[in-house]
Amino acid sequence: MNSKLFNYALNSIWRKKTKNSILFFGLIFSLTLLISSLFTAYSLKNMLLLNIEAMPEITVQKTSGGRLENIPVDRVWDLADIPGVQSVTPRVWGYYFFTHRRLQNDGVNFTLVGLDLYKDEYKKSLKELTYARFNSLEDGELLLGKRALETIKRGYFEDFFDFYTPNKEQIRVPIGAVVDGLEGFEDSGMMILPQDIVRKILGVDEEEATDIVLHIPNADEVDTIKDKISQMYPDSRVITKEDLISAYNALFDFKSGLFLALFLSSSFALFLLIFEKSSGLGAAEKQEIGILRAIGWKISDVISVKFAEHAVLVLMAFAFSTIISYIYLFIFNAPILRELFYSKNELTPPFHIVPHVSIALVFGIGLLVAVLYLALVLIPIWRSSIIDPSESVR
Amino acid sequence: MIKVDNVTKTYEVNKISFNALEGVNLNVNRGEALLLRGHSGSGKSTLLSILGGLLKPTLGKVEVNGISLGKIPDDHAALFRRAHVGFIFQKYNLISDILVFDNVIAPLLPTDISFKECALKANTAMKIANIFHKKDQKVLTLSGGEQQRVAIARALVHEPLVLLADEPSANLDPNLTKDFLNEMEKIKKMGKTIVIASHDEILFNSSLFDRVITLEKGKICDFN
After folding, report:
1. Which chain B residue has its CA at the smallest distance from A2's CA?
2. B93: domain range?
3. pTM
4. Are B78 and A293 a contacting pair at CB < 8 A?
5. Which of A288, A298, A390 sits opposite B78 (nearest CB)?
6. For residue A46, which of A131, A256, A356, B207 is within the disulfide window of CB 3.0 to 4.6 Å?
């Protein structure tokens, strides 16, 4: 297409500015919904995958009558003797409900993680900086993320936090550090403390742990080791990383149902726009095509001008929608959609989505939308172009 | 310049066929001005559309400027219109929401001619048609007579040898019709072949035409 025809296409967009503005903003609305949903879903999925990546290959818990109980720490020796197991770590952690009337839902659940200083049992699952920061604290201090700090500040805690043991004993723990890294949906409510303090708060004896985690370098051996542990301790519940992935996926898939509803509705809106556009041309547009054909334009000239006209519109709408979605996710942290996809924050401090945008995803959506739109739009234009020009200009 | 040999054009409406033209034979020489007369439905516009490559005859041969139009493919017909004929339509068929200049230059846009040269040609055509002073106005702001001059300029912009006009005075008052005929005199002097279809008596009495042909029910019934 020569530059004169391209200029004609640009003029044509401007000329039909009312109609094209409606189409343009309609496209932006539908595309922004679609792209924001995909960006948010993609970022959340990516955060889940990162969490799963840091998880141990096997987690062993103890059950009694179907209920979870603390597990005896001395089981670590038998577990460490199983061939293929690289390391065995008893963990002390649990939920602590902080209730205060100034909080949403009157309270939040914090996850207390007890670390033994100088032991690198959590080195793999905690972010490296967080782990290093904790190890630099004075003994008896608390480390938490910004979101958790904001939450306890509502209860007027600034420099320390008061915990209560099951025996109603108050334990005051000074806040040693606030870190940036703890903002994801899994760790925004995390508080890291020395293990002996967590034991007191949660009522876990010295001889017990919440669970025991095993690191197994060879993924092929995980199932065999799981069977061995089940035989060794019939009262144990053995969870593999694969089981956790399935559980996460089930949770995410449930949220994906909502996503699907949103995706379908935005796609439907987009479809309606395209359908409206493809269902026929206005009389003026048909006449213009007829005139252009009558004065010597070939069918390909007409189609290339109309193609350029709509390609400019749809690509600009797509670019704007991508930018708006990007700002929505990166700057505003995806309000509404975040809760829609992952509503766990009702009982935990608000989390921050770590935006993750795939170029392939962006180009994929762009290509799909542009091809679909242009194909549907060009059909009626082609139909009008092949009509005998004498009919249009009579 | 124009050879029409035994041309028939059949239309089918509601499964009923009728001949808009039947066995028409006609020759028009280079530089000649011809008036096609006839009542509504006599076939004048159909014949003009065939000569302009807008319609194909059902039977017979048509040749304009050495190009056979009988079975010409659509895209070749478009190229023929772009190169050889200028058409002034009864309702002008201008794109009303763009400028006069943009309407006039439109036939040249798909060509390889540079924009600068296209603009020169458009300016020249507008000067011939006496509409240059309105070049930056939108067509919808013009009067009927001015719109016709835009249509004339657009028909001349690609310097065709043949100019066709369908009922050019249908929307004009007698004074404007005379202006139109004066424009046509100028164009005839440029050596163009002119074929005009009209049933207007003012045109019939004009000295512009070398010949007048009367069509009735799709057949030529009178040579003058």
Report:
1. B110
2. 2-223
3. 0.69
4. yes
5. A298
6. A356
